Amino acid sequence: MPFANTEPPIRVLERQFLPGLLGLRFWDVAASAPVQDGLLVQARSKSGMVVDAVQNRSGVWHFPMLPGVNSFDVGKAVLEGTPLAPLSRSLTVRVADTARRFQTVEFDAIAPIEGGLFDWPHGPVTSDDGSPLGSGPVPLFSRASRLAPPGHLSVRADLWDVEGDRAAAWALLEITVAGPWGPLRFLGLADERGSAVVFLPVPFVPVDGTHLPAAQRTWDVSARVAYAPAFTIDAGASSAELPPFEGIVAQHGAPDARIFLTRSPDTFLASATPPGRWREPLSLLEPLILRTEPARVEARLRSFLLIQPAP
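Structure (tokenized):
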């Protein structure tokens, strides 16, 4: 007959506790969806030490260790409820996409942070329903070479700064289209060559009983360029050095750049009727390419949309 309750009592001597030092989520601005794969996320200390993040099953990229941050001290502070600020370090986070869908970005972060999850504080960035992405996931912008996600149309432009005679690198291109409850705004980011793409879902089509061939389905769009090189190019960035992502997004609140419809004589998009409306509509069948009328533009710039920073 077996003896009952012969197992010795188990006494817990210690528990392993791994605090969250820095976790990041990412948002696909074009598809209005979280990014779940394909990212290489790294943190670099002021001394130049680089560590890689790992992705968990919840779609969060997190750092099990960080240069200059003692995980034991952080865990102790969390368990005791003491502030983490004395243990914090400033880091530069770099996000690259191995699938080449998104542009590489760099931004500053402080770690460890309360709760372990980083909230993007540098909004606003508009999503495809026109709502701001303030705090929350870090927004990622599409490369100009990316194909449109399913169910999306595209507006493309190569931006050129006529005042600086250079590509309008890191400018924000905003496209507005009418929606069922008002205007919807969508953003794209120019790369170091000034190439930008904006993706937007097929706009709302009223159900009025009218059947149109696909070739005849078009929508009027308005365009805006947010370009403040003092925040990006003139802040020390070059083609080999990314400007801070905070500076790129800060352009969204800057005065609009002037968009040239023609040169000699100069006419601007803002003077069109209605203001900001592009001369050609967006088609269901092909991308809309924005460019200054090439007839009176020097040959090297005929494929570009010419802009001028606001004074």
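The longest strand covers residues 152-161. Residues 127-133 have pLDDT under 50 and may be disordered.
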